[in-house]
Every structure is written in C-alpha cells, then in structure tokens.
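To the wet lab folks,

You asked to see what we're planning to order before we commit. Fair enough. Below is the target structure as tokens, and below that is the sequence we designed to fit it. If anything looks off to you, flag it before the synthesis order goes out.
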C-alpha cells in the first residue's frame, strides 16, 4: 500500500523497542477532491508552520537519548522512536498512525512485515481532535497512547478509550483556579473571548455559571489595550510566526494557567547543540530553521537565488520567545514525562519478569511483550523524574498534578519572560489548593503596578443582593435585603436565591438551614405514649382472650356464639397492633399496609359484632310458635354475615392497592421549618370509601343492637353492643374533622387515637362485664342463670 500523500517530515531512530510520536508542527491545506477522483491525487496546497512546536520534537528526542544513556533504566535495551506530524489534519493523522503500526518502509495495515519494529506505545496528540484520531486506530490494538492535550477527546475516556492516558491534569482544575483567582482579587466583572470551536465552548460552559460574562466587541488595538488577560492552558498566544510584527504589549502582565513544568537539567545545553548539520536525520528541522530564522538553507531547493541564505550556525537562543523558547514549556514537559513513564513502566516489567525467569529457569525477552500487558503496569506507575516531580496517573488515566499560574513579562526585543506566580494543585491538603504570590506579579502598564479594580462601591454582604443604580456605570450598584423566602450566602451576589428543597432561610437570610423531618417517631414523647398504650391494650386483649379460653365451657362464654367471641377478641388484638404501623418513618411497605390493614381488621371486628347481634335477634324470634326463623338459627347465618361483610371491604382494599396504592410523600411546603414525611393515600376517594363502609357496618350494628337491647336473656350482649357501637360511631364521627384540621405527625396521632379509642370501646363495653362475672362473680356464670329467665 503506497502513501496517498508523501510528506518528508519524519524523524526516526531504530531500537529494540519503539515509541511513536505524533506531533503538531505543521498545518497543511489540501485541494478539495471528489469521490470520482483517485484518492492518490491529493496535493498539498499550502503549509502553515508553528515553529514553537518544534520543541515538542526535541523534548521527545532528548528524553529518549537521556534514557538510553542511563544504565539504571532498561540496561541492555535501547529505545528507538518514530516521529510523524499530524498536520492538524484528520486524514494525515490517521495515515501517520498507520505508519507507526506498520513496518519501517511500507504501510501495511494490520500486519507488521518487519519484526524488528516493536511499537510499544505512542505519545500524542497536541489537541483533543488529534488525540481522538490517533486513539481510534491504537485502541484496536490496545497500544497505550499518552496524550498531552488539555481537553479529553471524549466525555468518558476510561470507558470509551481504555488505552488512552493524558500527561496533563483534568481541565476542570483550571476552571476552579480561574474562579479562585477572580475571588482572590475581588474581580466581579470579566469578559470572555473564545473561538467558535468545541474546546472553547466547553470552557465557556464550565465558566459561565461562575462568572458574569461581558462581550467585548470593539477593535483589538483600541478596546484591548490595558486589559488584564487571563488565559487557559490550551491557548498559547505566542505559537505562530504571524505574531512577529504583532504588538505584544497588549499581553503585558497577562496571567495564564499552564500545564505544570519544571526545569530539566541539561535540556538547555541540548538545545544549544541543535543545528541542521547535527540533525541530518531530522526531517523537521529544515522547515523549522527557515521559518524561525526567516532565511533559506544553502542546500535547499526552494527559492534559490535569494540573498537571505541560512548559515546553519544560527543560535536558537537568539530567537524571540514568541518563536522559540529555551526553557521547556508545559507541553514539552508533558512529552518528556510521557517518555519517562513508558521507560519506567518497561523497566518495572523487566524487573518483575527477570525475577520470575530466575525462579522458573526459562528464557525471557522484553521484545515479546504484548501491548495489552503494558496497561496494568502503566496505570500504577509512580516515579520521580529528573526535575524532582512525582509522576503518576489517577484513576482516570490523567496525571495527578495541577496547573501553574504564569505571569507574562514582555521585553523590548519582542521576547518575554514566564514568571511563575502561583499554583492550582488539587493534590495538596484541602484549603491549600490555590496559591498566588501578588508581589511577584508584573501588572499591565496602565494600572500602575497595582491589581486592577473591578468595583466602584463597597461589597454587598451575605443576606443582600446587588441592585443596579439608575444612571450609574454597570459596575456600580446598591445593596437590597433578600426577600423573606430567599438568601444570599456570598458577597456581591446578583440575586438572592431560594433555598433548595428541604431547607429554609435563617433570620439573617445568609444561610439555609436543613428542615427537620416531621413524622410520628418511636422516639417522640407522643409516639412513645401511643405505642405504649397500643402494647398495653394488646396485652389486655390477649389476657381477656386467655380468660375466655380458660373458661370456654362455662355458660357465659358459650352463650352468644363462642367462636365469634374468639374472632372478635383476635380482631381487637390486631386492631391495637395495627396502630403501630402508623408510628415511625413511612416507607412503601408500611404505607401500603396502614389503611388497608386498619380497614379490613376493623371490618372483621364490626362484622363479628353485627353477626352476634343478628344471631341474638334471630334466636329470640325463632322461639315464637309457628315462625319460619328456626332454619336460620345456628352458625351458618353468623358465618355468612361475617364472610360477606368482610369480603366487601377486602375487595375495596384490593382495588385500592391495584389502581392507586398509598406511597411515601415528602411535603416540603406546608411547614416552614419541617418536612412532613407522610403516606399519600394515593386515592382519597378509596380512603373515604373504606371509612364509609366501616361506618355503614357500625351504624347497622348499632341499630340492630339498639332494637335487641331489651330481649330477655341474662347473657344478652345487645345492650353492651349498643354502648360499644355508640362509642365507636362517636369516635369516628369526630375523627374526620380532627383529621382534616391536623398536620404532620399530629394527623397520624389523631388516627391512632381513634383506632385505640374505638377498639377500647368495643373491648370494655362488651367484654369487661363478662370478665367481671367470670372472675369475681362465678356464681352467676351457671346454666341456672340462663334458664331462670
């Protein structure tokens, strides 16, 4: 496979293991082609050079040569490299990535014709687009890629590109650093200038909620003079040759967040030795040299006959800083560290495998290392580089470091000095991440070496918000007290804001206080009291049931349907216990059980009372001569009443749970300082239908008992049932208005009290007189008392 476009810019050195590099020094413009044309007909229409980026090539080469000379790292193993340019072009980046994956001479995708080329990792690219183009090819082979782009190429790198690493920190740290810088100097009005691309739009989106945006629209030489620039790490104003004739004074005193760098020993000496004659295998140096020194090399085929020929002995340190820097930049430092990270990882693999080889007595060769086996070691690599910085990756495959804050100082010869004046380092203790040295900052000339002031009045303290002054400049404002329901928790806030759900303002309107959860708890005095009564009455009911079971063969117990008596007592026991479902924080299960359990259990209890009452009426009616009611006397009638009346309530509750079941609900608005945690009934209609049916059974029972209260029988329960139903109906009639007028836990307490009171009415009116006779007046508990009347 031949290259569709041959460009000469390549720098290679063979070795046992090869590290690839895709740099971004040249930008090429291609003539547009159509699908009808042969892809091999692409032609280069123009070449844009970024000479400052040539330092990226040199830092890569310097790191490899330095490692090969170091006997402590990878002894007896030589590192080679192959460097291509991406030309800021997707097609060329893909093509040159394929060259890295192929043999030395030809591009043969997915096959290495020359086994001597053992590519172990790749460094690059400069921006997120180039990094992504490289990664799309490398991740298929699981070859590690260490990029030095400020922005990640995708949102979730470790999932979408598992073989991708970045020798730069997370970009979010610099956004936080910018805001901390603005807060430190109390700059409350800033403008943002950005290009119309995804990276700058990402920057704006990250900053616009933190700072106030002001568009700057006037000419660059008239609006921009005297402005203090704050630049992000991905923008380098000094990277183009077009800036030779540009007035750099507009950037005097600018502050820039840059990738952390440090002085690397011997790198400057290495740069002093760089010249076209010593770098003959370097395919990048010719164009760089001619563009940087604005001359033509004597052996160049281009522009022959020109008088401005290069000698080749020009010195890099004579170039202005906007063209080339003699100190290692942040990006070059990242490349340098990336090469060392690869080398240290290989050394660690080599050391561990040599130990294993010694134990297993078998041969081992590092050249057989598969790229996918490289990742577990690279993820955990940690080392101190030659500059003394600790280098390691975090869980996202990014270097665990921060950003430097640089102050740009221009010199008369169109060069500049980078002065490190601060740091945004998330690795230090909380509260110390941001540092700034004001004394080291050189401010723009027009501000008289003092920090610019972006305010014309005193601060608005927390609890107040800024209010625009009519006729005054936009940066002047007065302070207005926050409304009752809002707060401001910082100085100079544009508007007060409402507290989040679950919180409310304090008296000074400068802080939100968390609302207290309001529900009937087992730890509340009211909850403890009601729960204690429920347990006490449950034990009392159980005691009554025990008394009746112990005396089950006595006439008092056997009269009026003993089975219904037992079932009624069990129902009352469950009524007392079901009130405990209403205490405690509501959850889905308890909300689903509360009202249906209450409705069904009470329906069974009232149905038992109704069945007992009807049984008494039918029994006395059947004693009259010639009546047809005798066939209804017996347990069948009572059971039929009990089952039919209970099934209706069960059916209603089942429909309720199917169509609109109750659920936990947090009421944030009813109470100012509390959140009411309650069970939303789901369907209010079904809730009142359950109560209504229960009331209907109670009224029928009361009516039947009232009519049968004077029937002759020593053990006639009708008069007791009458009183019990009177109490029952009175409790639940008063329940509805009390329930609707209560809020929060008191609403629940009203229902629990109604449950307990109505159950106590049934228990005391029906069973306490019988217990009195069974225990204290056993002489009345005889058959004679029944037959006597």
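Sequence we intend to order:
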């Amino acid at each position: 496979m031949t290259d569709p476009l041959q460009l000469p810019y390549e720098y290679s050195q063979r070795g046992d293991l090869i590290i690839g590099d895709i740099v971004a020094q040249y930008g090429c413009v291609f003539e547009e082609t159509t699908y009808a044309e042969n892809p091999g007909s692409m032609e280069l229409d123009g070449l844009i050079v970024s000479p400052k980026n040539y330092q990226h090539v040199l830092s890569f080469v310097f790191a490899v040569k330095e490692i090969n000379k170091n006997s402590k790292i990878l002894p007896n193993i030589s590192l080679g490299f192959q460097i291509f340019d991406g030309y800021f072009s997707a097609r060329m980046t893909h093509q040159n990535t394929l060259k890295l994956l192929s043999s030395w001479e030809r591009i043969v995708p997915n096959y290495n014709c020359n086994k001597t080329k053992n590519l172990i990792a790749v460094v690059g690219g400069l921006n997120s687009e180039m990094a992504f183009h490289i990664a799309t090819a490398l991740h298929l082979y699981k070859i590690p890629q260490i990029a030095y782009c400020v922005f990640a190429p995708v949102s979730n790198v470790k999932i979408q590109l598992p073989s991708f690493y970045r020798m730069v920190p997370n970009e979010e740290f610099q956004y936080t650093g910018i805001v901390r810088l603005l807060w430190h100097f109390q700059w409350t009005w800033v403008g943002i200038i950005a290009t119309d691309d995804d990276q700058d739009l990402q920057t704006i989106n990250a900053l616009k909620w933190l700072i106030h945006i002001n568009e700057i629209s006037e000419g660059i030489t008239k609006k921009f003079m005297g402005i203090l620039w704050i630049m992000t790490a991905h923008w380098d104003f000094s990277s183009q040759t077009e800036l030779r004739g540009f007035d750099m004074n507009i950037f005097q005193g600018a502050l820039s967040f840059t990738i952390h760098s440090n002085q690397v020993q011997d790198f400057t000496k290495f740069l002093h030795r760089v010249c076209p004659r010593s770098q003959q295998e370097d395919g990048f140096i010719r164009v760089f040299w001619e563009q940087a020194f604005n001359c033509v090399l004597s052996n160049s085929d281009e522009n022959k006959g020109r008088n401005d020929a290069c000698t080749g002995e020009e010195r890099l340190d004579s170039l202005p800083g906007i063209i080339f820097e003699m100190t290692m930049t942040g990006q070059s430092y990242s490349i340098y560290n990336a090469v060392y990270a690869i080398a240290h990882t290989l050394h660690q693999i080599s050391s561990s495998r040599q130990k294993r080889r010694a134990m297993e007595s078998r041969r081992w060769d590092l050249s057989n290392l598969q790229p996918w086996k490289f990742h577990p070691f690279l993820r955990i690599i940690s080392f101190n580089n030659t500059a003394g910085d600790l280098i390691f990756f975090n869980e996202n495959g990014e270097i665990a470091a921060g950003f430097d804050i640089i102050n740009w100082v221009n010199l008369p010869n169109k060069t500049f000095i980078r002065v490190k004046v601060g740091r945004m380092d998330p690795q230090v203790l909380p509260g110390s991440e941001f540092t700034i040295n004001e004394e080291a900052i050189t401010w723009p000339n027009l501000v008289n070496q003092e920090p610019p002031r972006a305010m014309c009045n005193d601060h608005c303290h927390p609890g107040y918000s800024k209010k625009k002054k009519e006729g005054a400049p936009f940066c002047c404002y007065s302070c207005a007290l926050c409304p009752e329901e809002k707060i401001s928790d910082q100085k100079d806030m544009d508007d007060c804001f409402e507290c989040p759900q679950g919180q409310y303002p304090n008296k000074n309107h400068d802080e939100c206080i968390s609302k207290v959860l309001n529900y009937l708890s087992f730890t509340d005095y009211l909850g403890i009291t009601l729960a204690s009564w429920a347990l006490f009455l449950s034990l009392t009911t159980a005691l009554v049931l025990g008394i009746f079971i112990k005396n089950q063969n006595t006439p008092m117990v056997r009269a009026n349907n003993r089975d219904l008596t037992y079932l009624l007592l069990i129902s009352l026991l469950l009524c007392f216990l079901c009130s405990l479902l209403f205490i405690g924080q509501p959850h889905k299960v308890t909300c689903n059980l509360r009202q249906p359990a209450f409705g069904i259990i009470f329906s069974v209890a009232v149905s038992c009372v109704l069945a007992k009452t009807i049984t008494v009426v039918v029994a006395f009616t059947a004693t009259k001569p010639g009546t047809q009611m005798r066939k209804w006397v017996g347990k069948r009638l009572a059971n039929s009443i009990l089952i039919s009346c209970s099934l209706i309530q069960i059916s209603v509750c089942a429909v309720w749970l199917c169509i609109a079941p109750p659920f936990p609900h947090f009421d944030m608005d009813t109470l100012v300082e509390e959140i009411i945690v309650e069970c939303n009934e789901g369907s209010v209609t079904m809730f009142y239908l359950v109560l209504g049916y229960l009331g209907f059974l109670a009224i029928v029972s009361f009516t039947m008992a009232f009519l049968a209260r004077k029937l002759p029988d020593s053990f006639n329960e009708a008069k007791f049932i009458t009183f019990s139903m009177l109490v029952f109906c009175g409790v639940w009639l008063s329940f509805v208005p009390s329930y609707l007028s209560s809020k929060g836990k008191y609403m629940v307490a009203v229902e629990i009290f109604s449950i307990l009171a109505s159950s106590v009415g049934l228990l005391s009116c029906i069973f306490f007189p019988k217990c009195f006779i069974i225990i204290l007046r056993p002489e009345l508990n005889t058959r004679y008392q029944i037959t006597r009347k």
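Structural context that might help your review: The radius of gyration is 44 Å. Residues 464-514 form one domain.

Thanks,
Computational group
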